[in-house]
Amino acid sequence: MTSADSTRRVLITGAGGDVATAVSPGLAEHYALTLTDADPEVLAEGVERLDVRDADAVAVACEGIDAIVHLAGAASPESDWESVLDLNIVGTRGVLEGAQRAGVRRVVLASSNHVTGGYDRDGEWPIDARQPVRPDSLYGVSKAFGEALSRFYADFHGLSVIALRIGWVTGDIGAVGDEEIMSALWLSERDATEVIRCAIEAPVHFGIYYAVSDNPNRRWDLTSTMLDLGYRPKDSWYAAAGLREDVRTGGHPVRGNWPRD
After folding, report:
1. Number of domains in the chain
2. What is the pLDDT of residues 169-226, one digit of tens each?
3. Main-chain phi, psi angles of 155, to 5 degrees
């Protein structure tokens, strides 16, 4: 695949968000992208309007689309119930239903480490995707719902879905500060692009996978991500920051009010 004309057509929701902004340029090297968002301010930059809560609208937007990368929704662990219900639960259902109607081959769903954030509070690491969900917030609950709904569509409607429990995507190394949990969560823009590309292409019908960079202090098992999807993280927060890892037996404790400020 050397040009957009010879590649898959990929629709991205939430195109104005941080993750989409970080990965779209790299994905555009491999795919013909359709960028969508519901924010009027984003639409002025050449992004098509799409309300993901409207399954009919999603189905129309997905005509001829090979894969959806669903990044739209409430993104903060401090989001209230009304927000996650509307944007993450109803919105995710709209995307899955619309994709299924349109015959989309694959949906890559942005899930979150907050689905199992409760393990962080007790320092119960490492964590892999086979462990029971243990949300740390209503946001985490909504992402767990999205994973369960995805499994339903995969098992009973034949829609292929890969859910990525994405860490913290940022190109600003200084933003991590001295929070050990944040450096463990870091997913570089380059690695984020690669893990999404792997999720689009992998010969897997359904799966839930962690997505962080090769941080030596990470608490989330990447084994299945590497074996099933072929993901090979290239970046590490400590290397990117030019620092040596502060090693502590058992890991650094998580602050008591995590994941809230």
Report:
1. 1
2. 987 776 665 567 788 889 999 999 999 999 999 999 999 999 999 998 888 999 999 9
3. -75, -35
Is pTM, for the whole model, over 0.85? yes
CB 187 within 8 A of CB 232: no
By residue count, the chain amounts to 261
Q: What is the mean pLDDT of the chain?
A: 90
Residue 109 lies in a domain: yes
Please report the beta strands in the chain, taking only residues with DSSP state E, as ranges in sequence order.
9-13, 32-37, 48-49, 67-70, 106-112, 160-166, 168-169, 186-187, 206-211
Q: Given the residues 139, 153, 209, 231, select the one marked as catalytic.
A: 139
Q: Model confidence at 56, in pLDDT bands (50, 70, 90)?
A: very high
139 is catalytic: yes
Residue 251: how many other CB atoms lie within 10 Å? 16
In a domain, 226, yes or no: yes
For residue 246, is it within any domain?
Answer: no
The answer to whether 167 and 187 have CB atoms below 8 angstroms apart is: yes
Q: Which domain holds residue 136?
A: 4-241
Decide if 89 contacts 104 (C-beta within 8 A).
no
Domain membership flag for residue 225:
yes
Question: Cα(180)–Cα(201) distance, rounded to whole angstroms?
Answer: 33
